[in-house]
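Marked as duplicate of an earlier ticket. Keeping the data here for the record.
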Amino acid sequence: MLYYLFEYLDSLDFPGAGMFQYVMFRSAMAFIFSLLIGIFAGRKIINKLQKKQIGETIRNLDLEGQYSKRGTPTMGGVIIILSILVSALLFGKLENSYMILMLVSTVWLGLLGFADDYIKVFKKDKEGLKGKFKIVAQVGLGLIVGLTIYFSPEIVVRENTELRVNNIIEDVTYQSEDVKTTSTTIPFVKNNNFDYKWLVSWMGDYADEAVWIVFILVVILIVTAVSNSANLTDGLDGMTSGLSAIIGVALGILAYVSGRVDFASYLNIMHIPGGDELMVFASAFVGACVGFLWYNAYPAQVFMGDTGSLTLGGIIGVFAVLIHKELLLPILCGIFFVEALSVIAQVSYFKYTKKKYGAGRRIFKMTPLHHHYQKPGDGSIDALVQRPYVPLAEPKIVSRFWLVGMILVVLALATLKMR
């Protein structure tokens, strides 16, 4: 909103109003405002949650310090969502299709997570919203995003073309016209664009239509997978909020360089006209995560609940799709995916061994993976992996996961030149 006000003031030659034309300036302001909203409004929201006795129900997992968290306010994801929305609305271009999609995604997933937390807290149903309803909502968002990318005339790209001499890239040029595409950036290869059309090339004349169906299915899969994996990762103080902030920084950088033809040419990636506006949203996202971390760091004064974790994961998934970098997510969100895979592997192995031997066996002492490190490896739990033998303190686990997350982000960014 402020963008349009200062655009008008700039037309009147108001001193300094032109600063709002720059994405970097608005991104910095979005980060600062989002951070401040999270800190100052967060305190008031936490007080209200405590007053209404909206506390976390703790299951008996036999973890050190577990019961000290009983009664800690939950549904704190409201703080994150409020911070993102206010900052993005204040400093973003609201006619930008990318910004609109991100705002819709934030509200959509926020309502989904809020409904889940509401059932857990007020209806005293520890299972929360039925899994099938969560999937339907996530699939619905994937359809909205995929179909908007397909139909919106503003969501286009200019694909990069390499000029090679003796197998060395001498120049990178772009098409003169904006086009719709199902191509995406793929790491570690020289020709770093992958078109989903290759998957349906066997359909001949029908491939152009079929590829969009495949693309929309991929979008649905990504939104659902990242949202739910972030939800599984949310089990330790500051874990998901810190990792999301780290990933958000990388996504903001990728959005900015993709939206700038000069940087996109240097990196040999697709140019996304208008995509740099997403950096404003990414800055608001990072600021909201850091502001929430002010209260969520160990020992947590508030938990984000599904209101926050489902929203954060979904935002990351949608954002990556919009900038055509979704195939970098297994690296960027490596911690999220490993956490989810640990649960899948544990459940699958337990069912397999129970069927084969009559008694279920485990791979890890406990899943999601972060809980594995909180259990002693003294053989009291029948698991294939017993290390570490001595349980790690919660802050140490979180810090190490953050460090791994940072390494993965650097690796993901480096892949743009590692080919």
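See parent ticket for discussion. The mean pLDDT is 89.
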